[in-house]
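Handout, page 2. Input:
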Amino acid sequence: MSLGITGIDHVQIAVPKALEAVCLKFYREIFAFPELVKPAELQARGGAWFQVGTVQMHIGVDPDASPRSKRHICFLTADLAKAKAIVVSNGIAIEEESVAEGLSRFFVRDPAGNRIEIGQR
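Output:
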């Protein structure tokens, strides 16, 4: 029996409190996502909310770091070469590059170690 789910409203990643400022700067400056005003009752928790196309990405703050893993968000771009050039010019290491199921892509990590896939179909 289906739950009747029709889409994704938002995704949330976590960053440790000690890296909150550097991680928010990473998403604000390198990705330049439009930032949303968090509801007043949630602002004291820290983090930030961003609009990414039709989906929101929320950055929550945890007391400690999470272990590195393969879990990730995949962001689509219309110009993979340009996205890669911006990432590299900001000193961000490319972990892996490949093509899978028609998606040319590369992977990076944010300052908290969250894995990010950037791809173009």
